[in-house]
Amino acid sequence: MKKFLATLLTTAMTVSLLTGCGGKGEPEAPEAPAQSEDAAQTEDVAPDAGEAEDAGQEEPADAEQTGSGSYAAYDAIDVESLRGTSITVYTHMGQRVLGEEKKDEQGNTYRDESTAILAQLAERFEEEYGIHVDFQISQTESDIEPLLQVQDPAVDVFTNPNWPVEKWQSYAEPYFTLEEGEAIYGEYASVMPNDGEYIYSLMPGKAYDNAVVYNEEAIKSVGYDAIPGTLDEFNEMCKKLKEAGITPISLHRVENWPLDTLKGFANYVSGDNDTFDAMLKSDTPFNEDEPVGKTIKMYTQWKADGFFEPEMYTDFGVAMDSVAYGDAAMMLFGSWVVPQIQGRVPEGTSPSVIKFAPAPDFGNGRLVTAAAADNYSIGKGSDNKDAARLFIEYIAEDAQFIADSGFIANKAGVEPIVPDLYAVIDEAIEKGEASTVLQAATTQNKLNNEEALGEANLLADIKWAGNLFDALDVTKPDDWSAYEKQVQTQNEAYAEAKEYLGYEWIGE
User: Fold this and answer.
1) How far apart are CA 191 and CA 498, in angstroms?
2) 381 three-state secondary structure
3) Could you tell me which of 369, 378, 356, 472 has the C-alpha nearest to residue 424?
4) How many whole angstroms separate alpha carbon 100 and alpha carbon 320?
5) Does residue 169 register a pLDDT over 90?
C-alpha cells in the first residue's frame, strides 16, 4: 500500500497505550502454505537480485542477535524475558491509532476511537505478553528517515516507506530470508521489500488493489446493478450519472498523488503487471499507443467528458464523503479506502452500500491486482528486536485485525477472514468474469525508470501524469493541442534522461 499514501495523518505525537483484554497462545512454527486459487492465477514475478539461500546461511556482519534475518529469530524468542519491556512503533497510519476522522451533525471533526484498531491490538498484545507499545505518528513516510540513518535504538518498528532496496538494507533489520518468506506467504513474499536474499519488511496480508470503489445506491439510481464490464458501457454509465447530477468519479485532484493509481490501471490496459517499469522499452512512453500514455489519455478524456468532480475537494476526507453520501458514484483506488468510506456513510445507511469491483475491460479482460498488503519493519538500530518481531508476528496472526484493516490474513496456519468488501471481486473471479495479476516486485527496471523520470523532472509529485492531465482545459474539452504538445515535451525529456543515464530495459 503503496499503499497508505492517502492515510490522513496527524502531527507527530506519542500515544501511550493502556492494558486491554484478549490474548493469543504462544507463537507456533509456521507450516508450508497451500497456494491459493487466486495466487495460482497470478504471474510469478521474482526479484532480479538473485536466488534465495538456505535459512542456515551465515548472518550479516552487523546482525546483533542470533538468528537475525532468519525465521529462527522468531522461534528462539524468550517471551518471558520480555515482560515489562516496551517498544516504540513509528507509523504514518494515524487513523488506526487515533481513530478515523469523522464529522458530527454540526460538521465538527472528531476522532472515532472505536476505529483505532491498531491501538486496540497493541492493548491486547500488552495484556498477552506484558510488553508496552508506544506509537509515534508521523506526518509523512520520510519523517523518520533521519532517525533510521543514525540507527536510533528507539525505532523498534516502522511502517511502509517506498524505498529502493539500498535503503531497506541500511535501515531495516532483515526479517527473514526470501526462501523462508515464500514458505510462509507463498508467491506474495516475492513482492515484499527484498534484495533477492532477505525480506526487509513483513507484509502479513494480501489485498485486491486498483479497482472501482462505488456507492451501490448511486449507480442503481441510473439503472445499473453493477459496474459495467466494458469501457464503452462504463462510459455510458458515467454519462447517465453526470446527467442525473451525480459526479461519476471522485478523484480529489487538489493533490497529485491520486493520479499514481494510473500505474495499476495501465497494467489493465496492457494486460501485464510491469507496465510502469516497461516505460524503459520506449523513447515515447507518453504516446497514446503506449500503455502508460494510453491510460493517461483515457483519464484525461474522462476529464474532458466531465466525469470528475467539477470543483476540487478541499481534502481527501471530503472526497471520501462525496462517495459515502452518494454525491459521487465512484473512486478508482485500492481496498484500503473501502472501510474508510463505509465508516462515513450517513446515519441509517448500511455500510454495505459501498462496494468494490474489478475495473472494466480495457482490452485485455477484467483484471484486478493481487498485492501483498500492510507493511511492518524492524529498525536496524532497535534495542528490543525480539519484542519488535513478536509484535509484528502478533499482527500477522490476528486475522480479524487484518480483515478490519481491509486485507486478508496470509500467513500459513492462520485462518483468513475475508472482508465483505471483496465479495463482488471474489464472485467475478469465481465466475471467470475477472482474473488477477500479481503486483510486480521492485526490480532494477523500476528503479531505473523512476530515476529517469526524476532526471526528466517528471517523478516528483507524479508530474509524469499530472502535467498531461492538467494540460487539458475543461472549458475547451475538444482542444487537445496543449495536451499533445505536453506529450511531445515529456517524451523528449524522458528520452534525453534515459540517454544521459545510460538506461535501457533489462530483458528477462
Assistant:
1) 26
2) coil
3) 356
4) 12
5) yes
Distance CA 42, CA 53 (A): 24
Q: Which residue has the cell 476522522?
A: 101
Distance CA 336, CA 499 (A): 38
The larger pLDDT score, comparing residue 443 to residue 79, is at 79
Give CA–CA dist 72/65, Å, rounded.
11
Which of these, 100, 142, 168, lies nearest to 378 by C-alpha position? 168
Amino acid found at 50: G
- Sign of the Cα pseudo-torsion (422, 423, 426, 428, in order): negative
Say which amino acid occupies 89.
V
Cα–Cα distance, 466 to 464 (Å, whole number): 6
**Out of 24-33, 122-131, 210-219, 240-249, least confident range:** 24-33
The set of residues, in sequence order, having a beta carbon less than 8 Å from that of 327 and lying 6+ positions away, is 246, 247, 321
Question: What backbone phi and psi angles, to 5 degrees, belong to 363?
Answer: 130, -10
Rounded to whole angstroms, the Cα distance separating 233 from 475 reads 25
pLDDT score of 376: 96
* CA gap 321, 114 in Å, rounded: 19
Sheet holding 328-333, edge to edge: 247-249, 328-333, 211-215, 354-357
Q: How far is CA 299 from CA 81, 258, 294, 373, 486, in A?
A: 56, 12, 9, 26, 15
Q: Inform me whether the pLDDT recorded for 331 exceeds 80.
A: yes
- The span from the CA of 435 to the CA of 437, in Å, is 7
Separation CA 18–CA 86 (nearest Å)? 12
Looking up cell 491459493 gives: 36
Exposure string of 391-405, with b = 16+ CB inside 10 Å and e = fewer, is bbbbbbbbbebbbbb
Per residue in 280-297, pLDDT tens?
Answer: 999 999 999 999 999 999
All three cell numbers of 395, joined, read: 499482527
Greater confidence (21 vs 239) lies with 239
Length of the chain: 508
**Cell numbers linked to 411:** 500467513
**Region for 177 from its dihedrals, namely left if φ exceeds 0, alpha if ψ lies in -120 to 50, beta otherwise:** beta
Contact of 100 with 112, CB cutoff 8 Å = yes
What is the spatial distance between Cα 55 and Cα 199, in angstroms, rounded to a whole number? 12
Q: What is the pTM of this model?
A: 0.70
Whether 377 shows a pLDDT value over 70: the answer reads yes
Q: Which residues pair with 103 in a beta bridge?
A: 109
Backbone phi, psi, residue 151, to 5°: 50, 50
**pLDDT digits over 50-82, tens only?**
223 333 333 333 333 334 567 777 778 999 999
Dist CA 421 CA 372 (whole Å): 17
For 192, what's the count of Cα atoms within 13 Å in the CB-facing half-sphere? 33
